[in-house]
Write a structure and sequence with these properties.
Among the domains are: 71 residues; 105 residues, Endonuclease III, domain 1 (Orthogonal Bundle), CATH 1.10.340. With 318 residues, it is mainly α. It binds iron/sulfur cluster. Iron/sulfur cluster binds next to α17.
């Protein structure tokens, strides 16, 4: 996006210092990962962790970076698989927080928690969050937000939606992705909520996932936003893509659900809610699905995907 500022890189709390040897960098990363204040489940198992001997001398920056990742892999598999954490995650997270500090991505003003009406009472608010999440699948935030505005003007309550014809509901939510199927899901879900949940939404992941059209990503986000409970990380396409690019997963994951499980193994629970919002906005503005803006990304010195992307662009120019 043309209005995205170019950022000045600042050394983070655990950032790399100039003139450090690779061994020192790795040692520093591991000390950071061993921070006792960190509440990651993996960190609680770290006592007794023995750092491997590291001896590396490489000339090229890419080789050094690759070696960092390889050493990280070796440490996790040789010493204790339970303690695995991506070697640069703290620095990368702090850079993303810096890049997201203006809070000017579509998700910041049109995310699901922004589209529900807080003045309608808690149960109706929760229903609206659920409907917003159902609409948001395969749909841009702007389109979801506009559909939610039309639904709220029409009257977005369970009883009113059940009185609304499928044709009218389709007109209200069009052009969200798969709108015809979503009409069916919203109607069936509303029927279940009225008959089985006393016009409220379920408060557990397993019950939410049994509703038509509701999968794990929606369920975890719904627990976070509607019930204010941290039960898991909401992993959508942005979180899935960026986690793989930054190597926040041990090996490439095929599905968002696989990514969620790995992230939850090492990411401190205190970040589980924030991470979705951070990465979604980052994915909307900089780490785009197609043509990510690696040139202006603060993580382009530790992201192998970004480095390869920049090198390929450079080759094309030459
Ligand atoms: S360097 Fe590029 S691919 Fe890597 S996180 Fe930044 S924008 Fe995404």
């Amino acid at each position: 996006m043309s209005n995205i500022p170019h950022y000045t890189r600042s050394k983070s709390r655990h950032g790399m210092k100039q003139n450090q040897t690779i061994a020192e960098k790795i040692a520093e990363k591991m000390r950071a990962a061993n921070n006792p204040d960190d509440d990651a489940p993996a960190n609680r198992k770290k006592k007794g962790f023995k750092r491997s001997h590291i001896k590396i001398e490489y000339e090229g920056e890419n080789e050094r970076l690759n070696e960092d990742w390889n050493e990280s892999k070796q440490l996790k598999t040789v010493d204790n698989p339970a303690i695995w954490q991506p070697v640069y995650w703290r620095e990368q997270l702090e850079n993303i927080q810096e890049m997201r500090k203006n809070q000017d991505a579509p998700v910041d003003t049109m995310g699901c928690e922004r589209t529900a009406d807080t003045a309608v009472g808690p149960a109706v608010y929760r229903y609206q969050i659920l409907v917003s999440l159902m609409l948001s699948s395969q749909t841009k935030d702007q389109v979801t937000s506009a559909a939610m505005d039309r639904l709220k003007t029409h009257g977005l309550t369970i009883s009113n939606i059940l009185k609304t014809s499928d044709k009218k509901l389709g007109e209200l939510i069009y052009p969200v992705g798969f709108w015809k199927r979503k009409v069916e899901y919203i109607k069936k879900t509303s029927t279940l909520l009225e008959s089985q949940y006393d016009n409220d939404i379920p408060s557990t992941i397993s019950e939410l996932c049994q509703l038509p059209g509701v999968g794990p990503k929606m369920a975890y986000l719904c627990m976070n936003i509607a019930w204010h409970q941290t039960t898991g990380i909401g992993v959508d396409t942005h979180v899935h893509r960026i986690s793989n690019r930054l190597k926040w997963v041990k090996s490439t994951t095929k599905t968002p659900e696989d990514t969620r499980k790995i992230l939850q193994e090492w990411l401190p629970r205190s970040l589980w809610i924030e991470i979705n919002w951070l990465l979604v906005g980052f994915g909307q503005q900089i780490c785009l699905s197609v043509s990510p803006k690696c040139q202006q990304c603060l993580n382009n010195h530790t992201c192998l995907f970004g480095k390869a992307n920049l090198q390929s662009k450079k080759k094309k120019r030459n």
